[in-house]
Amino acid sequence: MMQKKTTSCWSMAVIACLLFVAATHLRGAEAAAVMSVDLGSEWMKVGIVSPGVPMEIALNRESKRKTPVTLSFRNGVRSFGEDAVTDGIKDPASAYSYLLDLLGKQIDNPIVDLYRKRFPYYNIIADPERNTVIFKKSDTEEFSVEELIAQILVKAKEFAQEATNQPITECVITVPGYFGQAEREALLTSAQLANLKVLQLINDYTAVALNYGVFHPSGINETAQYYVFYDMGASHTSSAVVSYQLVKDKHTKETHPVVQVLGVGYDRTLGGLEIQLRLRDYLAAEFNAMKKTTTDVTKSPKALAKLFKEAGRLKNVLSANNDHYAQIENLIEDQDFKLQVTREKLEEICSDLWPRVIKPLEQALSTSGLTLDVISQVILFGGGTRVPKVQETLKQYIKQELGKSLNADEAAAIGAVYKAADLATGFKVKKFIVKDAVLYPIQVTFERDPGEGAEVRQVKRVLFGLMNSYPQKKVITFNKHTEDFDFFVHYGDLNHLTAEEQSFVGSLKISRVELQKIKELLEKTKDESVDAKGIKAFFTLDDSGLFRCTGVEYVYEKQKIETEEDDEGTLAKLGSTISKLFSKDKDEEKKEENAQEGSGNATEGEEAAGKDDKAKEQEKNETKPSETDAPKKNETVKIVTVKEPVAHSLTVQFTQPLSGKSYEKAAEKLDAINKAENLRNQLESSFNALESHIIDIQQKLEEDEYSSCATKEEKEKILAECSAASDWLYEDIENPTPEMYENKLKSLKKLTDVFMARHWEHEERPEALKALKKMIEGAEGFLNSAKNLTKDTNPEKDVFTQVEIDSLSKVITDTIEWQKTEVQAQDKLKRYENVRLTVKEITNKMSTLDREVKYLVTKINLWKPKVKPAKKDKKKAKKDGEEKKSEDGEQEQEEGSSSGDDTNETEKVTEQTEDTNNEEQVELPVTEKKTDEAEKEEVPQATPTEDHTPRSDL
């Protein structure tokens, strides 16, 4: 029983791994590959899924599964990943890394000041238009953070496309949960510059929680299960409390697993980077204390970059060892540095960081309203959680073992690519509902004039409160305004955050919405039969965590008089009834939507969204009944709801992303950089191809195996051409192009291919002759067996005609004679002489022989023996014979001379006494492997007749 249960759980895990497949009913063009990008501060992982291929991590150019998020520009060359890290050691100011937290930040944000302190060698200036971060490399080179992130995403797309061999345009990108509207919009702009369509931005802890739910489905049932996912990455630490539960959909009655984020805590400056920086500064202080030089090592950008890299290596080693040596050659002024560092010392210099480790976990539990005793497990992910002191601190707090079942590096990328497959059109995945949570409450503020000279007061209405789930829609109704007015959207109460964290958030403003022509709209609809319901503003918080004001409408009800003439006919009513079977009533749809999205407030608060756009258009076109119309028979009054769009303008008040001319300029810059890199790659590739060919030919002509295949004159000419091409290759060519190197290679190959072709013939000929010999032996064996299946040798199994046997025999004999003659002639030739017996001629002979044998094999497969009559009882046979004779006698009198032939045929059949109830099958010993394979091939079916035409003439 236990074994069965274990097998079942394992099977479910395997099924979970293969939950998605390419939809077979979709056209090939629709089933395009998609990717995910787990964009961290230090490392990037790219997840991919393509038709028929399960989720996987794309490898980079070095065949590694993760890539440093570092970009460098040095000597006009752009480098990425490990190459850029190397450039950063030589010229630290030319390599850019740890960029993620600078997205959407104003130049005066404390995060920018912290970045300057950590990496003092960058020249950071303010964007003159947006006041955001600009890296100024020189008077002619400067980059915004969006431009640098866009180039990183371009590289991610290249890795994914090389792994799938398909173009990729759609992706899901992970982001830290604490990203606000400005950061998310800036990242979308970067993706747009990289020509990527973002299907969704997903919080990193949400992607990991989805991953865990998909690959551990057996623990999910109707009872909520609570888990904590704790992440310490390079730049930040976060903790999320989530629940897993099977929930039945009220409308479809289907049951689906749901993962919901209930509480989140984070520390955006605590991570592996801070530990590495502490270690860097400690090593710098120790080197200065050695007094090897009078220069302060912290004042040298190059030396500081070397110390930073060594600190990272040392941090990783000390996670597994108690002590290790830091070693740097030529740290500064030709002075080497070596120092033993213990894990105890590392923990000492970071002593003020360890109490901060549990703060995100405490905050997550607090916002979720849960306690540790209901948490099933605390699961770790992120590279920083490998630090022993971090794990020790967490275990002391939770009093239980930590969960380490996830791949700490790849969990978020795999969870995000599962979401990408779910959102893309070319894949079908098992439905897994995800509900994220709001970290920064969003509220609306507007002014209300009570009238009668009272003071105008400010009113606040919360749209999305702390830990409200999203995606979600909300509506606010303004029913006291008769003039144009505006309202503001901004972050709400942030008292749950520290003062430092609130300063990191930056501006609390999101947008300003100005409503126009309110008075004209109200006057236009003013009537005794009109009942105003107010001005409604519609808002959404989509699954990417992006806030939108989707529209503003003036809603009112009016009376409509209906008569019998307005009634629908019988057929119209029938059509309406049938239509309702396939579509829900507008109000019912909205009630269902409200049940899922939340309730509202009736007066200048939240309320349920109104009818859909189709209904709006239909009701807007309703006309008022004319007062002059004469009363009609059987009049009825109907109340209809009308919605009029309200003119309004929206102004974004957070840090604006690149747009307009700035965006176009950035796009042109990146396009030029990409084209220059592609041209450089082609130039390097063509240069390397020519260089490799020259060196290869020169080496080969020094070996007897190759040089013997060329005449003395040919060798001299080839070597001279190679020498000239080599000299030309290393000349200082002005403005070289890939075509120049390709044309040179083409002309050189035309010369060298002559002797290379001879060498290939001499190397491949023995194998070809060996294969021909085996085929001849197989054909001879087949021929010997086939000779016993002719009419003369075996009347009962007359499969082949004598002409066919002779035809195959002649082909075999001719092939043997040709082989003997040609081999002798070729052996008399020198290796540098023109080849007489080529591999192609040998394969042609094999094809002819194969065709002859294949024809006979096909014929024997189609052959069936003649059906013989069954045996009869002797008495019955005698009686039948007498009756037959009598019939024959009568037939002789009627048909005359033809009776003799019939009697002979009867006697011939009667003599056959063997039992032939079952068809006979003739087996031939075929020893040639190629002939066996030929039997399996599809060939035109031909009826085996007495055809005396040789197969070769057919």
Description:
Helices cover 43% and strands 21% of the residues. It is an alpha+beta fold. Among the domains are: 34-272 and 356-435, Nucleotidyltransferase, domain 5 (2-Layer Sandwich); 441-563 and 647-652, Substrate Binding Domain Of DNAk, Chain A, domain 1; 671-754, Substrate Binding Domain Of Dnak, Chain:A, Domain 2 (Up-down Bundle), CATH 1.20.1270; 760-862, no CATH class. Strands 2, 3, 4, 5, 12 and 13 form a 6-stranded mixed beta sheet that branches. The protein has a 6-stranded mixed beta sheet with strand order 19-14-15-16-21-24. A hairpin with a 4-residue loop joins strand 14 and strand 15 (237-248).
Blueprint (SSEs and pairs):
Layout: H1 2-17, E1 21-22, E2 34-39, E3 43-50, E4 53-57, E5 67-68, E6 70-74, E7 77-80, H2 82-90, E8 95-97, H3 110-118, E9 124-126, E10 133-136, E11 142-144, H4 145-164, E12 170-175, H5 181-193, E13 197-203, H6 204-215, E14 225-232, E15 237-248, E16 255-267, H7 272-289, H8 301-318, E17 323-332, E18 335-342, H9 343-349, H10 359-368, E19 375-381, H11 388-398, H12 411-423, E20 427-428, E21 433-437, E22 442-448, E23 457-464, E24 469-470, E25 472-478, E26 485-491, H13 499-505, E27 509-515, H14 518-524, E28 530-541, E29 547-562, H15 570-582, H16 586-597, H17 613-620, E30 636-645, E31 648-652, H18 660-700, H19 704-707, H20 712-729, H21 738-786, H22 802-827, H23 839-862, H24 874-895, H25 899-911, H26 929-936
Parallel strand pairs: 2-12, 12-13, 14-19, 16-21
Antiparallel strand pairs: 1-20, 2-3, 3-4, 3-5, 6-7, 6-8, 9-10, 10-11, 14-15, 15-16, 17-18, 21-24, 22-23, 22-26, 25-28, 26-27, 27-31, 28-29, 29-30
Helix pairs in contact: 4-5, 6-12, 7-8, 18-20, 18-21, 20-21, 21-22, 21-23, 22-23, 23-26
Main location: endoplasmic reticulum
GO molecular function: ATP binding; ATP-dependent protein folding chaperone
Coiled coil: 666-693
